[in-house]
Amino acid sequence: MKKTLILAIGLIFGLGTCVYAGPHASTKMYNNAPIRTSFVLPAVDGLNCYTADLHVHSFYSDGEVSPAERVKEAWTDGLDIMALTDHIETRRQERDMLKFLKAYAPDKEKGFDPINTRCSRGVHADERGIVSDLNFSFELAKKAAKNYPELTLIKGTEISREPVHIGHYCALFTKDNNIIYSRDDAQAIRNAKKQGALITHNHPGWERTSTDYTEFEKKIYAEGLIDGIEITNGKDFYPEIVNRAVEKKLYMVSATDIHATTASIYGKQKFYRDMTLIFAKDKSEASLRKAFLSQKTLGYCGGYIIGEKSLLEKFFRASVTVTPAGTTKKGLRVSITNNTSFDYTLNDNGRVFVVPAFSTVSATLTGDKAVYTVENMIHTSNQRLVVEFKLGK
User: Between the CA atoms of 201, 207, 211 and 216, what dihedral angle is there, to the nearest 10 degrees?
Assistant: First the structure.
């Protein structure tokens, strides 16, 4: 009788939904499945806008996470495209890996000796060359990417040489990373180009007091070996490099160059991770190559959007609409609607205000035209974009 009464009370109060399943049962307290950031960004000239990180490292060079985790992280961060660009010459994690595998060595006391794992600062590999399989990390990433069909991977690598006089270079769309290394700095880049790779000049101001051309850079630029250049790398922005990219017709890249987790760096920021915006028909290699070689890219870094002026303006006009909203004693009012995932900071003759993502802001014009300086859009010579909207009656 007691059992029947307890069951009846439980059903009345909704307790019947809890089922006793034995002493080892558990209750899920939250959903731990990854949630993908969703970007809404406008097409420009009929080309889709894709988000990409084109400079990323795993623990198969000097990063801190696996290739599979890099893939999951990129998907979670809302990227459409990721290039895995583990170093050729700098693979500092191998020493620890080989210590872990010591018991597998024929001489268990000695273990395995790392070979040519640090050849990036003027120290070249000896006659043994690079013995590690430099394609392996991408194969692991490709395997992981099967679970994230929205993410497209680009095979790449980073050619890492003495930073002040020679520099670092990402090769994108490589075929075989194991045959790129050469003791000759320029020849390593040529070896990647022979495979059809596109070459990005990385962080051109890193460890330098100037972004002026070095003698080595003059040589490789004159030879036509460079296709693109990083205008930002992590938190570092190189304003003069935007001018160089426009002058030399190079695609512009903003990249994380991530070694730690993106969550540890960008997780509590009020902006997204650094990324390159690529305007292409689709995500096929042919379309992406066409976008790069026609300089259809912009950089996103720290909430700023950076690039060539005309493309920057097209992107902004496709993102924001300005329409009349009546008049007041103070003048003409307008509605400014932002239809994208990015915030825009506008300056109307000294009055600065933000138009947040997916919002409409009302403003009174200080003059008879809607002319705004977009404070977080930068083009050549570190200038902010100025846009005038024609207002219909």
Answer: -60
Neighbours of 154 (CB within 10 A): 22
Q: For residue range 246-262, what is the model confidence (pLDDT) as tens digits?
A: 999 999 999 999 999 99
Gap between the Cα atoms of 240 and 380, Å rounded: 8
Q: How many CB atoms lie within 10 A of CB 169?
A: 25
pLDDT tens, residue by residue, 302-346: 999 999 999 999 999 999 999 998 887 778 899 999 999 999 999
11-36 mean pLDDT: 70
3-state secondary structure of 92: coil
Q: Is 75 helix (H, G, I), strand (E, B) or coil?
A: helix
Alpha carbon 204 to its chain centroid, in Å, reads: 17
Burial class (CB in 10 A: 0-12, 13-18, 19+), 346: buried
Q: For residue 257, what are its two tokens?
A: 């160059």
Determine contact, residues 43/296, Cβ cutoff 8 Å. Answer: no
What six digits make up the tokens of 146?
């099967």
* Overall average pLDDT of the 157-165 stretch: 97
Q: What's residue 9's pLDDT?
A: 46
CB 163 within 8 A of CB 151: no
Q: How far apart are CA 45 and CA 185, in angstroms?
A: 39
As a whole-number percent, the residues of the chain with pLDDT over 90 amount to 87
213's CB contacts (< 8 A; 6+ apart) are 221
CA separation for the pair 357, 339 (Å, rounded):
7
Answer yes or no: pTM beyond 0.70: yes
pLDDT at residue 7 in the model: 46
Q: Cα–Cα distance between 388 and 376 in angstroms, integer?
A: 16
- Dig out the tokens for 75 from the structure: 């998907």
Helix or strand holding residue 171 (H, E): strand 168-172
- Tell me the sheet residues that pair with 47: 44
